[in-house]
């Protein structure tokens, strides 16, 4: 069955959404001064519950300080404040800030930041303060918010991931521009959590160089170097590469196709730390797959990847294992084009095939054909309603004996499971990832068991979530530094191309305000997720699973 096109932009739900957004945006922008004052009073009353850290909000006529300074306690503020070093400052530019925050809680704050209604000296520290005080601030979602979010709830079925909508949701994020993503990713073009030798060595370097940037000074903790035990000695050559930490030279020598991107953070260094960390992660996943040696019959090993990205993992597997044939599927047209170019440049297009396809539309001849299955940070886009179906499809595609799979997935702790289904009006990152779901590990495993009817079992689980904080900082540095020279021009080119494809005439370009909104949205996303990863409010699990009774897999606890 052909993949249906995404819902046209002039659908009923689209019109309803646009009309309501126009009304609320007008209300926010005009301020409605009496309402703004009421909203300010309501927000201030809630923020008075802050007891950890310090938040100052500057308006044209007042400075709000939370918690309020205690008379006579200036000499030792830590007596009543366990984290006095956490300090952040907000400057209110437009009274719409108060209305947004009162009406939509944390999503309202995200929009206020994106649209320039408020400025912040340090988003990372601000989010730490909010997290430290989240129990006290739980009443931010007031009854007023229902008035503003009800129409979105009515029309939010557009985020239910029907097959057509899945492609629409993926395209909303990944079809922005390949050049835009290349502006902040490392040269391997891997857009997922990396594995570094330490968690925050970049912050030490930043402190030493006094290169303070928005949000970066908020984290000062130091982690010891990650030392994985060496693989046990063997008298025979191992079919699986060692999982001990490889040097940058060894990593780059082993991946000639995944060259580093040049730029201010890597051009003068012997290696790009982000590139090295991404290759380390890819190799870790490859090791977990335990790809078998060539068969005596000469039949190729077949591997299925759901979520191609820009082809980094498929290319690396094909380079290391010439006897493996790879089918990789994506819903992003832009990613497919660049991935195929990268694959062809390495002479691997006879062994890697990229399909523009929904995972639920795989051809019938793929049933039971794949010895290995892999998916990196794609499952978050599946949606609550289809997670069991995802595992049902994985079980359907994998060989009935000896098959192995590895999935990497962003997760949240079980303690927050009552609110882990992200929809369009209760999650800050929904503006970046429409239709998303962040599961708990427990839910992920339960869905695997239910979807496969117990025919897939979990072999091992690793949490690399704390490494995401540094990954996000690396992306943010590049994004901010290259915004004017790489990212903004890429957005303008994409805008021009889409206008031409739509048959629109003229030389209209994105104005400065539109570019700044885009920039602030991504900075907000980077900082928000960084703090979530640092505080383990977000996790990132690599789960290996297989058929029952797979004796050939072995048991190497150091992988």
Class by SSE composition: alpha/beta
What's the quaternary structure here?
single chain
Query: What strand line-up does the widest sheet have?
Result: 7-6-5-8-9-11-10
DSSP strand count: 11
Return residue spans where pLDDT drops below 50 for at least 5 consecutive residues: 1-16, 143-174, 208-269, 419-434
In percent terms, what proportion of residues is strand?
5-15%
- Compute the average pLDDT: 78
What gap, in angstroms, lies between the N and C termini? 40 Å
Specify the helix fraction band.
Answer: 40-55%
Alpha plus pi helix count: 17
Radius of gyration: 25 Å
Main beta sheet: strand number and arrangement? 7 strands, mixed
Order of helices and strands: HHEEEHEHHHHHHHEHEHEEHEHEHHHE
Shape: globular
Structural notes for this entry:
The two termini are about 40 Å apart. The protein is built from 17 helices and eleven strands. Residues about 1-15, about 145-175, about 210-270 and about 420-435 have low confidence and may be disordered. The chain has a domain at about 30-155. The longest helix is centred in the C-terminal third of the chain and has 23 residues, at about 510-535. The chain has about 550 residues and is an alpha/beta fold. The chain is globular. InterPro entries: CFA/CMAS (IPR050723), SAM-dependent_MTases_sf (IPR029063).
């Amino acid at each position: 069955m052909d993949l249906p096109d995404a819902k046209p932009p002039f659908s009923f739900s689209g019109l309803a959404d646009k009309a309501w957004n126009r009304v609320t945006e007008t209300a926010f922008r005009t301020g409605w001064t009496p309402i703004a004052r009421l909203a300010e009073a309501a927000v201030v009353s809630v923020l008075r519950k802050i007891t950890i850290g310090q938040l100052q909000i500057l308006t044209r006529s007042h400075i709000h300080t939370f918690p309020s300074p205690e008379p006579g306690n200036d000499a030792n503020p830590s007596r009543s404040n366990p984290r006095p070093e956490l300090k952040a400052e907000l400057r209110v530019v437009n009274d719409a800030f108060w209305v947004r925050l009162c009406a939509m809680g944390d999503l309202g704050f995200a929009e206020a930041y994106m649209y320039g209604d408020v400025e912040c000296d340090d988003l990372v520290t601000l989010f730490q303060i909010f997290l430290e005080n989240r129990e006290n601030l739980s009443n931010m979602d007031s009854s007023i918010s229902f008035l503003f979010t009800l129409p979105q709830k009515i029309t939010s079925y557009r985020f239910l991931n029907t097959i057509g909508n899945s492609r629409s949701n993926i395209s909303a994020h990944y079809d922005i521009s390949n050049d835009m993503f290349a502006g902040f990713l490392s040269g391997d073009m891997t857009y997922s959590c990396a594995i570094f030798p330490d968690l925050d060595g970049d912050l030490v370097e930043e402190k030493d160089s006094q290169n303070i940037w928005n949000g970066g000074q908020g984290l000062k903790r130091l982690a010891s170097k990650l030392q994985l035990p060496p693989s046990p000695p063997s008298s025979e050559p191992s079919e699986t590469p060692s999982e001990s930490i490889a040097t940058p030279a060894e990593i780059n020598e082993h991946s000639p196709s995944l060259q580093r991107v040049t730029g201010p953070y890597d051009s003068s260094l012997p290696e790009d730390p982000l590139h090295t960390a991404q290759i380390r992660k890819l190799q870790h996943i490859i090791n977990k797959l335990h790809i078998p040696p060539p068969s005596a019959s000469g039949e190729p090993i077949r591997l299925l990847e759901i979520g191609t990205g820009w082809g980094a993992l498929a290319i690396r597997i094909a380079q290391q294992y010439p006897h493996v044939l790879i089918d990789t599927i994506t819903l992003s047209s832009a990613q497919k084009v660049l991935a195929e170019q990268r694959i062809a440049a390495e002479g691997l297009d006879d062994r890697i095939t990229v399909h523009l396809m929904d995972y639920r539309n795989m051809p019938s001849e793929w049933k039971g054909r794949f010895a290995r299955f892999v998916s990196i940070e794609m499952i978050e886009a599946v949606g609550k309603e289809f997670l069991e179906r995802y595992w049902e499809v994985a079980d359907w595609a994998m060989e009935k004996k000896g098959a192995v799979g590895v999935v990497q997935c962003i997760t949240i702790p079980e303690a927050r499971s009552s609110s882990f289904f992200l929809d369009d009006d209760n999650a800050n990152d929904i503006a970046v990832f429409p239709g998303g779901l962040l599961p708990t590990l427990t839910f992920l495993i339960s869905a695997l068991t239910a979807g496969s009817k117990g025919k897939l079992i979990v072999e091992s689980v690793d949490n690399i979530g704390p490494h995401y904080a540094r990954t996000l900082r690396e992306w943010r540095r590049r994004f901010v530094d290259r915004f004017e020279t790489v990212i903004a021009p890429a957005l303008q080119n994409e805008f021009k191309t889409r206008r031409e494809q739509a048959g629109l005439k003229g030389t209209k370009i994105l104005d400065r305000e539109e570019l700044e909104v885009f920039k602030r949205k991504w900075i907000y996303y980077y900082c928000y997720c960084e703090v979530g990863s640092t505080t383990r409010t977000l996790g990132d699990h690599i789960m290996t699973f297989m058929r029952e009774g797979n004796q050939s897999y072995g048991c190497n606890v150091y992988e």
